[in-house]
Predict the structure.
Amino acid sequence: MSNFIVNSIDLTGAGTRISYEYEVSDDIKKYFKTPFFIEYDCSVAEVPESILIIPLLANILPISWLAGFDITINTLDRQFYQAALDIKAVFIKEFPEILNHSSSLMVNQLMDNTAAYHRDTGKKDALLFSGGVDAYASYFNHQQDDVDLILIQGADIPLNDSKQWATAKQNINNEVILQQNHKHYIAMNCRDFYTYRVKELVYGGGWWGKVQHGLTLTSAVAPLAYKKGYHSLYIAATDTIGFQVFWGSMPDIDNNVRWAGTQVVHDGYHMHRLDKVESIIQNAERLEKNVNLRVCYSELNNGLNCNKCEKCYRTIFALTLFGRNPNHFGFAVDGSVYTHIEALWAKGFANEGVRYDWVPMLSLLSADNLYQFAEHNHNTERHNTEQHNTERHSAERLKDSLKVALDATITQTDSKVDKGKRAIIANFPKTFKSYLKIRELLR
């Protein structure tokens, strides 16, 4: 029988780093390449083992369900045990093949941690905070709650990308709006401890997005949440009720995650991305403070944002539709950005989810809204009729281009470069790591 057995949990680094010692059956060794670890910015030495096991377990469970092996551990928080069963039922609806093999979670002792759970005076909550549009929208939803902000390295920022990690931390630490909030930083090898064969367990290989990230990111906070006494942990929604697909972070998954009195909340599901951008603008202006968004996950990013990937363009364009200068929100672009955005549309949208985010921009796009990058300030009275006509023509041209793109069938395929990159990552992981090191030196 295939089995994953956790033998011990070790704390090092003055109680800040958790390492796990485990053994796996020969037939499933192909899925794992290095031991899993997680590190916090404070000691979690007083946290019980039944909570310390949760970060590892959250990463192993989906692999167990889809690859077909049992997991054996010594102890586990009872609430998280039930959460694991509830989330497995959600996965079975999407992946019924899970029922074809054994994937049991065997626990020697379930613990009720709520009674002994330490809380500071009053209710305390936390928010997973990347600095992007979703995160900031959720922040403003709960700003009055004085939430702690948690940024995790090893998720969208690789562990060996020290420069981008430093930039992300600096951005959050220096943001005036966030000065009142306590920040915590977590590092874990959640995308490095398994082999490329795990990605092959789902069609298309989108393991991180489609399967892993919601359960991984929320559960990483468990030891910290126990120590700090968090009542709710918010994770910002990616999609909305208007666009429902199976995704690693969605209400059916996130809202089932819980342990020792902490409840995860999938936040902002009622808001379209464009609504979130508008909320950020309104709150920034209400507080008379800038907001520097970090939306870019591009490997070629050399700062806060690369300013030329689809996600950057999507955010930049949304800001300009509200008549705002994106350079006041963490970007660095000029008027040529509209030409680049049109070129992006001409290539087509990669998937329905991306197209869904662009759809409402069509109705908002007009010369009366669109931000002008020239010396002319779009928000002031126009004195030049010819200039006015040029701006209107520009907006209409953009509108026509966007309409064509939205009406087109999604036919975009991966480029040869993308396919080649994934092949190198999958078959030559050491080569790819060398590439990342060289890229870091060249920055």
